[in-house]
């Protein structure tokens, strides 16, 4: 047939099949929930302190789907090796239910979701389906979860850096009262909460497996990549090889961390005004561009309609990125 678009027709068929499979899956899940509620009246169950919210239920079902797809991806040795870098995102409580491959599976599901949304957008625009655009969308969707994981990991690292001094003080006091390092680590993981408690639970577990002190804290450094953790690892490695008084070593570490913390607070107060001005200067170009666009929507058309305008826009973007990185490097104070 002349003028018939086979690409759009194939995409429509695939979308119909996908939607049909999703409807069947939802119907099966709905039926299983009905059966569960029907039999709960005749079953002896423990009293729950809190009921699951709808979001928790969706999240639980999503992880079940992830675990199903993970079994397929685990056959690849390359993906298994690639998933090792995501082990650091798993908390101590999740170590029995999550593995690094789960995050790789989430990345693939995110990529296919982006491709699916792109196909729907193309169909509504009555455009032809492009393989390059589909590949580009797949790559974007594949790396989108990394953005959220990186932001979450940076928050975790910052919290660990804030609480590491507390952990060292508790350990030093434990050593002064005659406790060994296992008992000191156990006290830290019980007394503190948050990411630092999670990391010390992993340290305690590694020590229970028989690993030496320097190896355990080196694994801790590899997970968090903090200079303070590296300093502790180096001190304990030297202590393990040459011997010495662990109380004196941790007293030195505590004093060093306390002085560093004090210096950091002073530097933050001194550079607060400069950082505020820097942030304002970052936002101003976007605000002015938005204001000009609202007053005259055609003002920026030459940037996109002519090759010289496009090159000028690219030069402006590169210059702006260079300015941001340069000023950030100047304002960043390394201890």
Overview of the molecule:
The chain has 335 residues and is mainly alpha-helical. It folds into 3 domains: 6-43 and 51-155, no CATH class; 158-252; 267-331. Helices cover 79% and strands 0% of the residues. The protein contains 12 helices and no strands. The protein has helices at 6-40, 54-73, 77-83, 100-124, 131-176, 181-191, 195-208, 213-224, 227-242, 246-295, 301-305, 307-331. Helix 6 runs antiparallel to helix 7 (195-208), helix 7 (195-208) packs antiparallel against helix 8 and helix 10 (246-295) runs antiparallel to helix 12 (307-331).
Judged by helices, strands and strand pairing, the structural class is: mainly alpha
Beta-strand residue fraction: under 5%
Distance between the termini: 72 Å
**Sheet with most strands:** none
The outline comes out as flat
Helix and strand run: HHHHHHHHHHHH
**Residue share in helices?**
over 70%
Quantity of strands, as a count: 0
Number of helices: 12
List the helices and strands and how they pair.
Blueprint: H1 6-40, H2 54-73, H3 77-83, H4 100-124, H5 131-176, H6 181-191, H7 195-208, H8 213-224, H9 227-242, H10 246-295, H11 301-305, H12 307-331
Helix pairs in contact: 1-4, 2-4, 3-4, 4-5, 5-6, 5-10, 6-7, 7-8, 8-9, 9-10, 10-12
Structure summary:
This protein is an all-alpha fold and 335 residues long.
List keywords for this structure.
335 residues; mainly alpha
